[in-house]
Every structure is written in C-alpha cells, then in structure tokens.
Amino acid sequence: MPLNRHLRKGRDLARTAGDHASDMFAPLTVIGRGLRHHAGWAKGRWQATPKERRGPTVFLVAAMLLGIYLLPHGLLFALVALMASSAWVGRAPKAPPSPPEPDVADIKLSALYAALTPYLAGPDDLHPLYHHERGYKDAFRAWEFDGEGRLSRLELDYPAYFTDTEPAARARIEQVVQGKAGRAREYRFDWDEESNKLRIATLAPLPTDIAAQRFVAAPGEIVLGFTDEDGSARTIPVGQGGATVQQPPVVWRTGPRSAEPHLLALGVTGYGTSSLIRSIALQALPFGDLVVIDGAGTGEHACLVNRPGVHTVETSLHGALAALEWAAQETERRLTALNAARHAGSAPPEDVTRPLWLLLDHPTELSELAHAEGRPDPQDLLELPLRHGRAARVTVVIADDVEARDRITPTVRATTRARVLLGPAGPEEGHAALGAPLDIVPAAHAPAGRGYARIGNGTPVRLQVPATVDPLDEEAPAQLRDAVISLLPHRDTRTEAAAPVDVPPRPEGPPPALPADPGALTAVDLGKEHAPLRFRPLA
Predict the structure, then answer these.
(1) Predicted model pTM
(2) Is the C-alpha dihedral spanning 137, 143, 147, 148 positive or negative?
(3) Sheet of strand 440-441: strand arrangement
(4) In Å, how far are 399, 464, 465, 466, 469 from 448, measured between CA atoms?
(5) What pairing do the DSSP bridges indicate for beta strands 394-401 and 356-361?
(6) Residue numbers of the chain with a pLDDT score lower than 50
C-alpha cells in the first residue's frame, strides 16, 4: 500500500475521532462556558460592591449556602440548578473577534493619491510616480493627522515634468488637496521647485474675539489686525476674553519715512472692509485729522460725525468732490509750507506736520455716479494726495469691493503699496488684489474680518481684523459697541463714558498764517454747519 494512502487514511481516522470527541464532550463544553460566564459575573459584582457592603454580602451568601445545605436534598437541587443555568448561559458559542477598524490614514491618503494621479501622471513615463496600480507610500514621504483624524501635515513628491511654475497648474493641485483634506480649514502650500517636493500644512484658526481697543503702537503705526506667530516679528499685549495675552500684529507704518504711505483694502461683501476703516480711524484720531467719505452711503461711519479731529463725513457726490478738492489744495499748501520752512531753516508749522487721513469707503460707487452725471471722478482728485502725500503727511486709505478692482484707477493701484484682501478669494483674485501669488488656500467659510495683508514687497500673511462694529448698529453685541464708543473722542457725557486720560490733547486749531494775497483766501462749504472746511492760502 502506498505511503500517501496510509497518510490519508490516518488523517481521516483522526478527523473522525475528533468529531466524535467533540460531539461527546459538547455538553461539558457548554456547561464549562456557562460556569466561566457565572464566575466572571460574580467577580464583576464583587468588584463593583463598595468595601463597606462586602462584609454583609459575604454573610448573606454564607447564610444562603448554609440554608441550602440544611435542606433535604438541597445540595443536589442546587447543583442541578447551577448546571442548568450554566448550560443555558453557555449554549451560545463565543462571539468571533470583531474585525480591526480600518486605518484612517490609509483610507484618506489612498483617496488623495487617487485624486492626484490624473494630474501628476504622465502617459509617456515608463516608471510613473503616480499610477492607479501603485500605492501612496511611493509618493507621500511624511504625513500627520490631528486628534480628530484630519490631515494636518503632508509632504509629497511630484514628477519633474509637472509644470509647477504655472499658477494655474498649482491652483489645480491645491484645489484637489483642499477638497480631500477638508474645505473648512486654511492650508499653506510650500512648493520646492528645485527638489520637486510639496509641503502642505494646516493653519490654526486666528482669534476672532479681539475687540477694538487702544493698541500698544508708536505714533504713525496702525495695527491692521493679527496674524500667525511666523507672520510678525513682534507681539503686543491685547485684551482677549477678559485677560491680557500676547498676539502677533500686522503693523502698517505711515508717515514721511514710510515706503508704503497709502493702503488699498479689497474684500468680499460682508467680510469687514468698513470695520477695517473704523479700526484705522480710531487709531489715527488721537494723532491726526480725518476726512471720511462713505461712497456706499450706508451710514457705517456716522459714529464719527461731530467728533473732534473729524473734518467731515460725506456720503453724497457733491460733498465728496468738495472734500477731495480741499484735500488736494491742502496737500499743495502743506508742500509749499514745508519747502518754505526748509529753505528758511526753521521748524515747519504745526498745522502742516499734523497727519491728515483721507478714508474712502467704496469710492467706485461715487465714480459711477460721477460718470453718469458728467462730473469729475473722485478718484482723479486723489492723484495729488497719493503722489505727494508722504511728504505732506497725508495718508490715503481706500476700501472697496473685490469685484470693483477693475474700476479702480491705475494711479490708485500704483501708489497704494500696502494691500489688504478680506474674505475668501480665488488664486486670481488674490494675485490681483495683493500683487503677489498667495501661497495660502482660503477656507470655504471664513469669519468676518478674516483675510490677508501684504505690506510693500513683503510676503502675504494672514490677517484677522479686530471686531470694530458700528456703535449705532443695535443688532451688534453691546460689549463690542461699548468698546468702540470708549475710543471715540469728545463723547456725550449723558449717554457715554468719560474720555480716557491717555489720549494726547488735541490742539485747538492750527496757528494763524498770513496770506500773501488777502483775496486768495476762499472757503468751500461741505454742507456741515458745525465744521466747514476752508482752504488755506498757498504761501
């Protein structure tokens, strides 16, 4: 008889004996499983019983066992009951172990790799880095997930033939990554063109509970908002959530020594361009004079009316044109007075060294109205303050809608080297608004005041504007309204708190100037009976 047949016959006999043994000992197996279940239940109840109740529990169990022992045939009945209970409890077989949970990293990274494959795979590549039959571990070098299982960091390789120098190609990859990793967060993309590597990092949300307040800054420095720790070279103390914390600010330096004397802020509707204007106005009021033009006519800046240092707040085309004509002549007068003081070797007058701020909110609305009526464009009147404002201590701040950037004149775009973009915007809009490509992909839903800032030739940084609400808006939180009211000068003591003592005193008025020609003194009435603006003679 062959050896294989003997082995097969031996295996059959062993299998048959095992089956008979399992059938024979099946009741004992069921009872043993039930006894283990009872023992585990008793152990759990004993551990759950408080220590002060364990003594009485042992006494009751011992008394019950003694009673069973004294009963006729008590032990037999107890044993039969225990076996029956064990057989009933142990009748169900042991549940199979649950399959291990799938790896979150494996699922999400596989999906991201499959989504990037159509954009990073080449048809002529003999050894493609991205292929439908390959895994993500060949292309992804390092990754990290946060506590909620969301992708926080990723480093990947891409083929050398990918056009990483084209903004459209980059934007396509960034859009795919954001779609797979989550559109509710912001991501920074670091393209290493020399090594063909892409590093992706999730950015933490910026604080949104910083209200308007007096920031620690030098005269001429404006805190536009707050950014990440690596976006600013310093921190300042701010009140946040009832405590004082250190936050990195985005500081815009103005004045005659500033390389970026004027600011252009563009934003999506409802994301806080008017709040940025109010924040700048509150910081500039203690040290300068203001002319505010509200092109939208919504009354967002009515809280500045009749305040010391605010020459006028205009909402009409006639008033805006008159105010800008005065600003142009005031800029020329200041230049003439400063040049005369330099030639004479004397100190310039105080009225020409005190900063003058021109704050324009949505001026393109007035430009369209002026074109329809055949009147001068208000933006054309800004040419002299924009080109010579740094020497004349005149600062221009313009805020408008991002969709109206094509209606902004070339002079305004060329002379406003400090840029702010508020709200979620695409790569093309970000490049057009900031003048540089944005390496941060905005979140799909951002809070009001969230955006990006670029000062001069610097790198764009994230920005969160302080919550500077309209104090006349009854729907705004009372705490935020009181914070703005406390910063306004010359408040009504019947309804508002007393003025702070740390605000520097404002001069009663400029020193008198003797005109060369008395007939040259003319006045322009801007429709405000309380504070008319007057042209000073160009000496």
Answers:
(1) 0.73
(2) negative
(3) 140-145, 151-157, 197-203, 186-192, 440-441
(4) 15, 8, 8, 10, 11
(5) parallel
(6) 1, 492-495, 499, 501-539
